[in-house]
Design goal:
This protein is mainly alpha-helical. It has helices at residues 7-14, 18-30, 36-41, 55-65, and strands at 4-6, 49-51. It has one domain. Helices cover 56% and strands 9% of the residues. It has a two-stranded antiparallel sheet. 16% of the residues are buried.
Length: 68
């Protein structure tokens, strides 16, 4: 079974507000040129979660670590 990383776990790790994180991820996912894996992994009306070690997770971490 693959490990799943949720937005909640990522927010706790990075000490960021989940609401702000969702806003930043939605904005990043809408720009498919800059974040192609994040855009492909996004499924509307479903929770933000990624497979551990995936490229989409790496892009999400990059987006959340950058300053707004």
């Amino acid at each position: 079974m693959s490990d799943i990383i949720t937005l909640k776990a990522l927010c706790e790790e990075l000490k960021i507000d989940p609401r702000e994180a969702r806003e930043r991820l939605r904005a990043a996912a809408s720009d498919a040129k800059a974040n192609p894996e994040l855009a492909k992994a996004r499924k509307p009306r479903s929770p933000w979660q990624w497979v551990k070690g995936s490229k989409a997770l790496q892009e999400a971490q990059k987006v959340l670590r950058s300053n707004p």
